[in-house]
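Technical note accompanying the year-one report. For the benefit of new consortium partners, we illustrate the data format agreed upon in the data management plan: each record pairs a sequence with a structure-token string. No post-processing was applied to the example shown here.
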Amino acid sequence: MRDLAAWTARSLETDHPVPFGSDVFHSRTGERLMRAANAVGKENDPSSHAEVRAIRLACRKLKGFSLKGYTLYTTCEPCPMCMADALWAGLDRVVYGATIEDANQFCRQIQIPATEVAQRSDMTCAVEGPVERELCLALFTHPRMQKAFRLWSKRR
């Protein structure tokens, strides 16, 4: 999670800073399969959340739609769309940093916890978090990210 937060923090020095980053790792070997950041604004696609992008890219790399045997790490608790994608992909586990409540202090969120989405499904995926919460929350509170949040709110 520390490595993912540091990688995501590099976006804070770009024209498109984002606090949302995700990694897909092999659950047994710990080998990283794919990494992605939120690209909603850059791609003009409301579904381009970091988790969805990482899952899409990982499935493409594996040439299949199953990520059984893999774990998703993400700097923020997955929204319901992202958690549903994790379930449909068959991920073993999702590990998150900041919470949905943390993110909602700065940007709009659908306030349904990832654990609730998982519990309401007939698919199995362990949900763990928050992990390194303060480190991931710092992505949201960085001055450049705060400026970006103000711009995001004007676009809606």
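Partners are asked to follow this layout when depositing records. Helices lie at 2-9, 40-43, 50-62, 80-89, 100-104, 114-119, 133-141, 143-155.
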